[in-house]
């Protein structure tokens, strides 16, 4: 006996779904023979795993993000033909976004599973990985407003204890949220009244992932440079501000999301002023990145 089973997400080949909206699809069955069935269930579960190594010990922490199951067919006698069973699964509004670490040892994953209960047989299962993204309101005033940061620096190590900052850097971006594939315009205004020149600026787009233990007393931080570009510097003894600018493109990456208890992803733009081999003051501009990802579809006999 062969039963061909397939989980289909119509008009959604990427299998990307958003929190707060239903996850819709259907189970396609093809029976070669008549078959009694106790029931068919559909299950949606999500799990987060944070792991890292301390000495010879591997620390592992898990978090249940979602566990939902419903019946799509009760006890029945099915004749040999094709069947289509639609389903609709609710997604909570505060689900953490899907995530895969660079080493694949830590992740947030969601799976849709079909459970088929056939008399006198073990329960048959078919799993399909889906991608969940946290819904972001792009009309949020906090995300649409300009993001800026300003700080002063003292390049003189001998006088660094004094409240005197002859180098002032003001950096800004026009929005607080960006999507993958878009370009970020970074503006930098620098006033350098010191006797040391700023050789050049390095602009980096950074993804920071922090993995936590259950009580958040232990953590591991991972820093990934997603993009980098450079800008010219400025000479010393400048009486007026120097206005500089550059662009940096957002690649495909995990979205910003801090809703998980054990895996938190944030993004920021780092502006580094290179003033010497051992003196490179830096500023951070926090931003939000929204992204999509692609997953292959699975067809399997069970």
Please characterize this protein's 3D structure.
Helices cover 1% and strands 59% of the residues. 25% of the residues are buried. It is elongated and about 90 Å long. Residues 292-302 have low confidence and may be disordered. The chain has 2 domains: 3-135, Immunoglobulin-like, CATH 2.60.40.640; 141-290, Immunoglobulin-like. Strands 2, 5, 6, 9, 10 and 11 form a 6-stranded mixed beta sheet that branches. Strands 14-20-19-16-17 form a 5-stranded mixed beta sheet, with no helix packed on it. The chain is mainly beta and 302 residues long.
- Report the major sheet: 6 strands, mixed
| Text of the CATH class of the largest domain | Mainly Beta
Rg calc: 26 Å
Number of domains: 2
Mean pLDDT: 87
SS element count, helices: 1
Strand content: over 45%
Pattern of helices and strands: EEEEEEEEEEEHEEEEEEEEEE
| Overall outline | elongated
Distance between the termini: 10 Å
Are there runs of 5+ residues with pLDDT below 50, and where? 292-302
Query: What is the β-strand count?
Result: 21
CATH architectural group of the largest domain: Sandwich
Helix/strand-derived category reads mainly beta
CATH topology group of the largest domain: Immunoglobulin-like
Helix content: under 10%
In brief, what are we looking at here?
This protein is an all-beta fold and 302 residues long. It is built from one helix and 21 strands.
Keywords:
6-stranded mixed sheet, 2 domains, 1 helix, single chain, mainly beta, Immunoglobulin-like, 21 strands, disordered C terminus, 5-stranded mixed sheet, 302 residues
